[in-house]
Amino acid sequence: MRKITAAVFTVGILASAMGAFAAQDTSDIAFPEGYRSWYHHHSTVNQTGHDPAGNVGIQHVYANPAAVEGLKTGKFAKGATFAVDRFAYVEKDNHVMEQGARKVVAVMVKDDERYPETGGWGFQGFKGGDPKVKAVKDGGTACFTCHIPHADNNYLFTRGQ
What we know:
The protein has helices at 2-23, 65-73, 141-147, and strands at 39-46, 57-63, 81-91, 97-110, 121-127. The protein has one domain (29-153): Chalcone isomerase (3-Layer(bba) Sandwich), CATH 3.50.70. The chain is 24% helix and 29% strand. The chain is an alpha+beta fold. The chain contains three helices and five strands; from the N terminus they run H-E-E-H-E-E-E-H.
């Protein structure tokens, strides 16, 4: 009987937590105007086989001044923002990859009070780089799932400046 009670209690807690997690609102995260003039942190090529598959392509990561400071200190202030500009890539005849069409501009904004369910980060994406077409409809749940293994690094894939 104790095992059943504990199991029911655990399932109830998990369901409540997931409900709160999914209920987080990131719809008001704005398109990061001028992000391409921010600090260009790095670029990567995610090839076929990369998980999640939707992130296959070329991506450029930009950091606003607050995010750059956080990269230096390891502490990110409210408003620190990263923009990830993702593009498809085109393979050419002589083993060259060229940047193709823009897929999304993904945004990660630090605000511990507003986004406690996702490590203090709010997530939004703008399909095709269009400020009017928001891609994140789940409060950042899917985005954060990939960031969870990086909890020891402020949920970031990258380190330092």
